[in-house]
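Below is a filled-in request sheet from our internal design queue. Each sheet records the structural input a requester submitted and the sequence that came back. We keep these sheets so that new team members can see what a complete request looks like end to end.

REQUESTER: design group, bay 2
PRIORITY: normal
MODE: inverse folding
CHAIN LENGTH: 469
BACKBONE (tokenized):
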């Protein structure tokens, strides 16, 4: 038994959708119904993890640790969780670590965070060979969970159980683009006994005969379907049309259930990936507080929006289709020393406010532009501050992985003006007066170095757009 509880949670679903019909038409195969979520060209698992985590509104209650799970890390031989830590504006006191390589790392991140009142960030990009089931049935997204042992938890962990066995079901060698999978029947035969054992022990330890809600996540589609039939919840499961999202999948599915679960209800979370893990949670009376706000930003609400994507664009963004670049030189590799010196600005988007006259400077500087006061500045976080487009340019010649490049001059609410690249927006619809928010993205990658910074995004994106890119 453990007293760990989920204090807050959030999910992030990217803005773009690849319709199965579009995929089938491009490859002259039967695509079927449905669609999958697709991360933009300037998103990776780190940026999506930041997007999910910053929606938690951590405030002054900084988590002592961040545990980041993914099967598609932006870096290897470098910790990706440190960029998430910096983008959240946390100070240097704290622990940040990656759990990468397999979908089961999501369970590791959740349990590690629960043990230390930390933050679990689950994020993934799922790709496959063109025309494969992985490509069609995969999905991109992220979820974040803040754990704590104090009062106010939305859901408490009652029991956990695991079963582990070594067998070859799904694998990908380092450097390979797509995963491979053994024959499906073999995987089903290996998974089912492990799942039955783990679930039986978890339910018995929690003193629960049948959970109200059951969440099943597995890279093995037949196993997921069979497990859902064998362990139904009292409340019928709502199909989640998101595709399988790897390490982010259990987090997104759990978040979707928490969006609609009532107080005092039990949730059985089953993850079948290189073994089986079962967790039993019970919601508290606090789950009803702020439900309307959570639902508006919930998984289902985000899935309801989205912009349709052409298959050729999807292949280009995934690096599977190399297209002619713009007739401009590529940018230089970002340098480590200036990035380190400007960490608060570059990663947390922190400006400065003059104590003497209140003028907001973006980026931060030592000498006030208005009153010329020296070294009388307070840091002011701008990442959560919306703004208004004062003017903009659409550049069809500048280097961009997805031209044209649109730059917008943003006047931030509360002060401050800065020029940012526009993302997730249609250049033909941007106008003076457009309301925007900031989002953490990757500007470009040169010689294996990712240049992370902030971009502007129309406020309505992901909620009511249904445009074709």
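RETURNED SEQUENCE:
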């Amino acid at each position: 038994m453990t007293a760990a509880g989920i204090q807050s949670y959030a999910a992030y679903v990217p803005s773009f959708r690849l319709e199965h019909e579009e995929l089938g038409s491009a490859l002259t195969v039967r695509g079927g119904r449905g669609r999958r979520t697709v991360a933009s060209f300037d998103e990776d698992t780190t940026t999506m993890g930041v997007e999910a985590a910053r929606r938690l509104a951590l405030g002054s209650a900084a988590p002592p640790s961040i545990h980041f799970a993914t099967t598609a890390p932006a870096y290897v031989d470098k910790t990706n969780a440190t960029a998430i830590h910096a983008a959240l504006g946390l100070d240097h006191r704290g622990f940040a670590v990656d759990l990468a390589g397999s979908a089961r790392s999501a369970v590791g991140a959740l349990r590690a965070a629960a043990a230390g009142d930390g933050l679990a960030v689950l994020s993934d990009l799922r790709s496959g060979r063109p025309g494969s089931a992985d490509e069609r049935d995969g999905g991109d997204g992220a979820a974040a969970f803040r754990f704590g042992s104090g009062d106010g938890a939305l859901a408490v962990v009652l029991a956990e159980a695991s079963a582990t066995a070594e067998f070859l079901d799904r694998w990908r060698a380092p450097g390979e683009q797509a995963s491979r999978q053994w024959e499906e029947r073999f995987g089903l035969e290996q998974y089912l006994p492990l799942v039955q054992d783990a679930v039986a022990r978890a339910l018995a330890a929690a003193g629960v005969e049948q959970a109200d809600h059951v969440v099943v996540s597995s890279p093995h589609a037949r196993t997921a379907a069979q497990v859902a039939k064998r362990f139904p919840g009292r409340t019928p499961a709502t199909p989640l049309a998101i595709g399988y999202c790897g390490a982010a999948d259990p987090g997104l599915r759990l978040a979707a259930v928490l969006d609609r679960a009532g107080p005092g209800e039990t949730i059985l979370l089953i993850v079948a990936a290189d073994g089986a893990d079962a967790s039993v949670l019970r919601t508290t009376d606090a789950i009803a507080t702020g439900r309307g706000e959570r639902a508006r930003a919930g998984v289902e609400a985000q899935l309801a929006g989205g912009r349709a994507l052409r298959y050729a664009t999807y292949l280009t963004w995934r690096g599977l289709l190399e297209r002619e670049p713009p007739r401009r030189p590529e940018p230089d590799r970002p340098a480590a020393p200036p990035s380190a010196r400007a960490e608060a600005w570059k990663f947390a988007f922190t400006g400065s406010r003059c104590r003497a006259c209140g003028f907001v400077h973006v980026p931060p500087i030592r000498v006030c532009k208005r009153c010329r006061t020296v070294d009388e500045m307070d840091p002011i976080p701008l990442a959560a501050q919306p703004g208004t487009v004062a003017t903009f340019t659409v550049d069809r010649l500048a280097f961009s992985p997805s031209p044209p490049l649109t730059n917008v001059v943003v006047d931030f609410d509360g002060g401050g003006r800065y020029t940012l690249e526009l993302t997730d927006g249609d250049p033909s619809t941007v106008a003076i007066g457009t309301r925007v928010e900031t989002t953490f993205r990757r500007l470009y990658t040169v010689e294996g170095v990712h240049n992370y910074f902030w971009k502007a995004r129309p406020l309505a994106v992901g909620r009511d757009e249904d445009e074709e890119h």
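SHEET NOTES:
- The first strand starts at residue 5 and ends at 12.
- The domain at 5-317 is CATH 3.40.47.10 (Peroxisomal Thiolase; Chain A, domain 1).
FILED BY: M.R.
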